[in-house]
């Protein structure tokens, strides 16, 4: 077998496909077209062209980190809607599966 057939058989195995001999010939032709198209990109003059990092500008702008004093745990607990001593009170969550 030549290397092109070896490549098709390897791709077939990796993709867990079972191609007929006709489909393998078509696959080889399609791969040749793809490789030809990609090879033609090497002929492009990209001198002075900035690399594309993002297709669009990021939607969110990030803020600068600012150092802050840590929150006082007592103040946080006092601000809770329900508390019991130094603890937050939350609704009970059942881990029993629904029947």
Short synopsis of the structure:
The protein has 99 residues and is mainly α.
Description:
- With 99 residues, the chain is mostly helical.
- It has a domain at 3-38.
- 38% of the residues lie in helices and 4% in strands.
- The protein has 3 helices and 2 strands.
- It has helices at residues 3-14, 21-40, 73-78; strands at 83-84, 87-88.
- A two-stranded antiparallel ribbon has the order 1-2.
- The protein is elongated, with a radius of gyration of 31 Å.
- The two termini are 59 Å apart.
What's the topology here?
Layout: H1 3-14, H2 21-40, H3 73-78, E1 83-84, E2 87-88
Antiparallel strand pairs: 1-2
How much helix, percentage-wise, in residues? 25-40%
Strand percentage lies at under 5%
Average pLDDT number: 85
> What characterizes the major β-sheet?
2 strands, antiparallel
Identify the strand order in the major beta sheet: 1-2
What is the helix tally? Answer: 3
Features:
mainly alpha, 3 helices, 2 strands
């Amino acid at each position: 077998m030549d290397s092109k057939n070896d490549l098709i058989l390897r791709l077939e195995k990796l993709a867990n496909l079972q191609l007929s001999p006709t489909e393998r010939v078509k696959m080889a032709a399609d791969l040749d077209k793809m490789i030809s198209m990609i090879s033609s990109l090497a002929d492009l003059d990209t001198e002075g062209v900035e690399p594309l990092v993002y297709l669009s500008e990021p939607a969110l702008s990030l803020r600068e980190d600012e150092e802050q004093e840590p929150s006082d745990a007592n103040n946080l607990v006092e601000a809770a809607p329900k508390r019991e001593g130094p603890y937050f009170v939350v609704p009970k969550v059942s881990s029993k599966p629904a029947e």
